[in-house]
Amino acid sequence: MTKGPVLILGARSDIARAVAHRFAAMGHPIQLAARNATTLAQDKVDIELRYDVPVTLHECDALDPASYSACVDGLPDLPEIVCCAIGYMGTQAENERDVPMAQTVLRSNFEGPASILSIFANLFEERGFGTIIGISSVAGERGRATNYVYGSAKAGFTAFLSGLRNRLAGKGVHVITVLPGFVATQMTQGMDLPARLTAQPEEVATAIANAVRRKRNVVYVRPIWQLIMLIIRSIPEAIFKKLKI
After folding, report:
1. Are the C-beta atoms of 212 and 81 separated by less than 8 Å?
2. pLDDT digit of tens for each residue in the chain (245 aa)?
3. Long-range contacts of 185-190 (CB under 8 A, 24+ apart)
4. C-alpha angle with apex 50: 12 to 130, nearest 5 degrees?
5. Euclidean distance between CA atoms 31 and 117, whole angstroms
6. Alpha-carbon distance 45 to 32, whole Å?
7. Per the residue annotation, which of 51, 88, 150, 220 is the catalytic one?
8. From CA 135, how far away is CA 192, in angstroms rounded?
9. Contact 57, 41 (CB under 8 A)
10. Under 8 Å between Cβ of 46 and 119
């Protein structure tokens, strides 16, 4: 059976690369979309040689709405699966002081991804099938003093994915929310992350592939995060604001 294309948005990240390799290994053609997409030429060659699947590159800038239509129109085929790995964290200290930087974080993690996925949601609904995968974050499950700008953007994205999933239920289009927790990537390089709570990009990719196969709705890559976030959400606000976590 011929496998449909998988489009990876934000294809330069470590998680995105792992997802591309995982689906290519399953026989899916791969479409890589990112800013300065031509710099992904080596990734294209690597994936094609390893897995004998076609790979195409597409220019798409989450911060530039004008690029969305050109990206979609330039795809050789409408994908079967679209996975959004777009995101930017910055630092909380910088986001607090620099309003334009905070706006970039908000737009990169919520406005841009939600806008792009809305286009594919409409196309998939019209076609009658497809899978939309959004990589969000456990940081969006409660506002915390140490990352509330990034966390609030991810909270918005998580809510968007939930609403989109409910809207498209029964219309042949499935929406998956992925909550990785800590992941060992370039974005978290230098952070002191606990090994038990930290996944590798390949682990995230496997969880995503399994979620597509099993029609999962919300995926915690490491199940322990579901318990951790349940506890964090349950702490009364009067106590929580004193913890400064």
Report:
1. yes
2. 689 999 999 999 999 999 999 999 999 999 999 999 999 999 999 999 999 999 999 999 999 999 999 999 999 999 999 999 999 988 888 999 999 999 999 999 999 999 999 999 999 999 999 999 999 999 999 999 889 999 999 999 999 999 999 999 999 999 999 999 888 877 666 666 777 888 899 999 999 999 999 999 999 999 999 999 999 999 999 999 888 78
3. 185/13, 185/14, 185/15, 186/13, 186/14, 187/13, 187/14, 187/87, 187/89
4. 60
5. 15
6. 12
7. 150
8. 22
9. yes
10. no
CA–CA separation, 209 and 117 (whole Å): 19
E strands present in the chain: 6-9, 30-34, 55-59, 81-84, 130-135, 173-179, 182-183, 198-199, 218-220
User: Catalytic annotation on 150?
Assistant: yes
The radius of gyration of the chain's CA atoms, rounded to the nearest angstrom, is 18
| DSSP 8-state secondary structure symbol assigned to residue 172 | T
CA atoms of 123 and 119, how far apart (whole Å): 6
CA distances to 41, 108, 135, 208 from 211, rounded to whole Å, are 29, 24, 12, 5
Closest CA to 83 of 131, 30, 133: 133
- Residues paired with residue 130 on neighbouring β-strands, in sequence order: 173
Domains and CATH numbers, the chain: 6-243 (3.40.50.720)
Taking the complete model, does pTM exceed 0.85, yes or no? yes
